[in-house]
Amino acid sequence: MITFADSILSWAINFAFVMLVAAMGLACLRLARGPSLPDRVVALDLMTILAVAFSALFAIEAEEPAFLDVAIALALVAFLATVAFARFSERRKAQNQDNGTDAIRGGGL
Fold this sequence. Notes:
Elements: H1 4-33, H2 37-62, H3 66-99
């Protein structure tokens, strides 16, 4: 027997899936258009966060907690990738300041 709360939860999950797919499309657009490397990295980071949300939402819908492990692992990888990019960006900025170029806009490379 399907209750009113179950139908609301089902509707909310479906709505959230649609919103996640729309956000993923917009993030793909930002990834493709740029205009700079940090913009693209932020878009890629957003896409991984959306994939984590998608996995967690699917775990709720399928009532399978194993997908939460996937979400946690993906979140950790995304965090490490963001830290690695920040470190790369700082090194590049310091190196380009010695050369007198702008590291964020990619000048001098």
